[in-house]
Design brief:
Blueprint: H1 16-43, H2 46-68, H3 71-90, H4 94-109, H5 114-117, H6 130-142, H7 159-174, H8 178-187, H9 189-195, H10 201-208, H11 213-225, E1 232-238, E2 246-252, H12 261-264, H13 268-287, H14 294-311, H15 315-320, E3 324-326, H16 328-334, H17 340-347, H18 366-369, E4 379-381, H19 386-395, H20 399-414, H21 420-434, H22 442-453, H23 455-465, H24 469-489, H25 498-510, E5 512-516, E6 519-523
Parallel strand pairs: 2-4
Antiparallel strand pairs: 1-2, 3-4, 5-6
Length: 533
């Protein structure tokens, strides 16, 4: 919809002469404008002038709309448009309701950055289809332009992130600290090709040495220490029942394919995904010297994960499960096959990785070994019904299957850091699952890998060279405004009970703000929770 912006002409009550003079002046100006337009049309200047006039008109239109939505008057105007939409919608006047929607949307969008505005479809009512409103225009014009190395594109105003990434990449290229060394190691493709699978071989040998249940438990525990969960998942986090302390939780494990349905649904598409997984796993097994049994072991991995998918708690149920306080005795009763006490003791031990790299600890973690004891870190269990079924599954699973599963776990973990042919296999698999068909650009991959693997050194590099004090002060000021707005609205929130309102106000008062790295961190913590850090 196009909007014609009309300025009101004030009435002149000083007499007919004044009115005639204005009319004459208007006629003269109109004639001159008409003559100018005829000259433009005759000389071929029409298109440049038309474009210039259109640009000026668009600029003025944007400024007018932006100003109209600002301040108390703007909010009142938007509220009136909302009322018009509501009344006319219920009255069956879709045309008037649509006009009100488009006008309100245009007012709100006018102040957006240009690279956000181009995605918005103001003709769509955001209350009816917010995705179409926010992304519909971009979707129509760019749906075939998603990079081949990505399965999707998130529309966001990422100019700041792009600028930071470009600045930081230049710094990482010459930084002598851990962040720069990490980044340049990632970028050194010749060295990566030369090393090949050398660093992976000790892990494979570690798995091959498994000979009984005790050595299997030791291997699984070592994997757990390196963020490689096998049968179940464990973690340490703030206790959601008492933020002054930490809690230790165990829950069902994950799978290689995106969801249970990929294993259990009997359709041509899902059968294809399962076949591709076996093909990819077998190719990787061949790369670590197991070509003779590669396909058989790949099928063993799929079969075990399929059985796991059958006993897993659904995503919907898991979402509602906040964990239940428990004891190791109760966990042992649910799953007696697993030696929980042995596992916890080994989990708390400070050991060097199988590949001989340096320890990341200096002493055993006694606090881990005391989890679940009175007065110590409490123990929680989620997906409780999963564990008796996992117990039965492990009792019938042979060591060869477990060893195949562990080989696949370590391969899947490190594949993206390996030589090009390994990454090519992951791209082939991701193409089947997500539609991606190319590698991520190496500098982009190494930038994000460094921010994850060497986060603190990279943050210091950013703060020392890119981040500015005035930006930090501006961010803190913005967050204080957020706090002030909460203070202003809490007293009038009618849905809140008084006790809840008081608790919310106390939390708001105890909230602290921290601006760090390239991210503004807003931490909603009770002041007493700081004691747990």
């Amino acid at each position: 919809m196009e909007y014609a912006l009309l300025r009101p002409v004030g009435s002149d009550r000083r007499g007919q002469g004044s009115t005639l003079r204005k009319a004459a002046a208007a006629a003269t100006a109109g004639a001159l404008l008409l003559a100018a337009l005829l000259v433009v049309a005759a000389t071929g200047w029409a298109r440049p002038v038309e474009r210039a006039m259109s640009a000026v008109s668009d600029g003025l239109n944007t400024k007018f709309l932006e100003a109209s939505a600002a301040g108390a008057a703007g909010r009142d105007f938007l509220a009136r448009l909302q009322d018009i939409w509501f009344v006319e919608t219920n009255a069956g006047r879709a045309d008037l309701a649509g006009d009100a929607t488009r006008m309100a949307s245009s007012l709100l969008v006018a102040g957006f950055p240009e690279d956000m505005k181009v995605a918005v479809d103001v003709a769509t009512n955001p209350c009816e289809d917010f995705y179409e409103f926010a992304c519909g225009k971009w979707d129509d014009e760019n749906k075939d332009s998603i990079p081949a190395y990505r399965s999707s594109k998130a529309l966001a105003w990422d100019r700041a992130d792009k600028n930071i990434r470009e600045s930081m990449t230049k710094l990482l290229e010459r930084d002598d600290g851990p962040a720069g060394e990490y980044y340049r190691s990632c970028m050194d493709l010749d060295h990566i090709e030369q090393v090949g699978t050398t660093q992976l071989k000790p892990w494979v040998a570690f798995i091959d040495a498994i000979s009984d249940k005790a050595s299997m438990v030791t291997a699984v525990t070592e994997f757990n220490k390196h963020d490689l969960d096998t049968f179940f998942t464990w973690g340490l986090d703030t206790d959601n029942r008492d933020s002054t302390r930490k809690s230790f939780s165990i829950e069902q494990g994950g799978l290689s394919l995106p969801d249970n349905t990929y294993y259990l649904e009997d359709s041509e598409v899902m059968r294809g995904h399962r076949a591709k997984m076996v093909d990819i796993v077998a190719k990787f097994f061949t790369k670590i010297g197991r070509s003779a049994t590669a396909e058989q072991e790949a099928q063993m991995v799929l079969d075990f994960e399929t059985k796991t998918a059958r006993i897993r708690i659904s995503r919907e149920e898991s979402r509602q499960d906040q964990g239940t306080p428990t004891t190791w005795e109760q966990v042992d009763a649910l799953m007696p096959y697993w030696p929980w006490k042995q596992w916890l003791q080994e989990l708390g031990s400070c050991t060097a990785p199988p590949d001989g790299s340096a320890k990341v600890c200096t002493a055993d973690h006694e606090k881990v070994r005391l989890v679940g004891q009175p007065g110590e870190t409490p123990l929680y269990i989620s997906n409780e019904a999963f564990f008796p079924k996992l117990n039965a599954l492990l009792e019938e699973t042979d060591l060869d299957t477990v060893k195949a599963l562990l080989r696949w776990k370590i391969i899947k973990k490190v594949a993206i850091y390996m030589p090009a042919d390994w990454i090519d296999l992951m791209v082939e698999w991701n193409k089947d699952l997500y539609g991606t068909s190319a590698k991520s650009p190496r500098d982009r991959k190494c930038y994000y890998s460094t921010s994850s693997g060497a986060g603190w050194p990279m943050a210091k590099l950013y703060i020392d060279n890119v981040f500015h004090t005035e930006n930090r002060d501006a961010a803190l000021s913005m967050l204080e405004l957020v706090r002030a707005q909460f203070y202003a609205t809490l007293p009038s929130e009618g849905w809140m009970a008084e006790a809840d309102r008081k608790a919310a106000q106390e939390k708001l008062q105890a909230m602290f703000f921290q601006v760090f790295g390239s991210i503004v961190g807003l931490f909603w913590l009770y002041s007493r929770s700081l004691l747990a850090l």
